[in-house]
Amino acid sequence: MDRRRFITTLLATCLLPSTRALAANPLTPFTLQEDDDSASFVIELEGSHEHKVFTLDNPPRVVIDLPQVSRIAPSTAPRQHAGIVKDVRTGRHGDGIRIVLDLKRLKQPKTHVRELDAHRAQLIVSINDPDPLMAAVTAEAESHHQPRKAIIEIDAGHGGKDPGCISADDHYEKYVALGVADALKARLHADPRFEPSLTRDSDIFIPLHQRVLMARDHHADLFISIHADAAPTPSASGASVYILSEHGASSAMARWLAESQNAADRYDSTRDSNIYSDDPDVQSVLIDLSMRGTDVASQKLAKTTLGHLGEVTHLHQHRVNKAAFAVLKSPDIPSMLVETGFMSNRADCKRLLIKSHQQSLAEALHQSVADFFEANPLPA
Ligand SMILES: [Zn+2]
Question: What is the second-level CATH architecture of the domain 5-131?
Answer without folding.
Answer: Sandwich (2.60)
